[in-house]
Amino acid sequence: MALKTAWTLIRNVKCRHFPVLATYNCVRLLSISSPHFLKEIHRTETPNQIVIEGVKVKSDREGKVINVPNQRGCPLCRVGLKNLKHTDILILNQFINSDGSVIPQYITGLCKKQHFKVVRAVALAQRAGLIPKKPGT
Asked: Any idea what DSSP says for residue 90?
């Protein structure tokens, strides 16, 4: 409910910074940040001036991030994850809410085929007791 309210507020803002955002159906675009450009602040003092500058620093996650050759498509198709099983709990947890329901397709950005696989795998994992179910089900 709060997500829809936030989206309607952003869509109704008549500002030169938001016209492109109003055309998208996905609110996740608002939370995307650029983790690639880490900078360290250096302060240099001389008798007449103080110089503060940002120097680029390599990320400590540099060798651990997956290099995605295909930039188009849904998140699971991009990394080539075709066989999603109900035992892949770490992957499935990224697509469920805290109450155990699957996050809608327009928010996750999954294609129809992968969304169906995720819904089916979450249901199997909940029946197996690997993921908590919704209260009352």
From this structure: H
110 located within any domain:
yes
Does residue 39 sit in helix, strand or coil? Answer: strand
Domain that holds residue 126: 71-136
Query: What one-letter code names the amino acid at 56?
Result: K
pLDDT given for residue 30 in this prediction: 38
Q: Quick check: is 130 in a domain?
A: yes
Instruction: Give the chain's domain count.
Output: 1
> How much is the pLDDT for 31?
37
Residue 127 is predicted with a pLDDT of 92
Which CATH number does the domain housing residue 108 bear?
Answer: 4.10.640.10
Cβ 131 vs Cβ 96: under 8 Å: yes
The answer to whether the CB of 68 falls within 8 A of the CB of 106 is: no
Low-confidence ranges of the chain (pLDDT < 50): 1, 14-33
Q: To the nearest 10°, the Cα dihedral for 107, 113, 117, 123?
A: 60
| Residue 53 within any structural domain of the chain | no
